[in-house]
Amino acid sequence: MESPFDSWDAGDPPETDYEEDSFPEELDLDEISINPDCKYPHIKVQLVGRDGNAFSIIAHVREGLKEAGVSREERDAFRDAAMASGSYEQLLNLATQWVAVY
User: Fold this and answer.
1) For the chain, what is the radius of gyration of the CA atoms?
2) Staple partner for 70: which of 10, 55, 65, 98, CB 3.0–4.6 Å?
């Protein structure tokens, strides 16, 4: 199978099936999928469409925890676990274990 990158030169991006308006304008937060192991399923943190930098993800989750009244010790525990995660994928998985991510 031919990869979309096989015919790509530096001037033209590969064609994709992605549509600019494929994300809903408003998301029904009651319908988001929540990790069954989520520690704080009532805390909803938006990561989709935001800066995907690892430090930004940590900051968004900590902000959500703080706004929900979670103790500083607990927020620091998340930060410490996030900083110790071995990969970006592990960080995202950890975030879903703490809050409802959408």
Assistant:
1) 17
2) 65
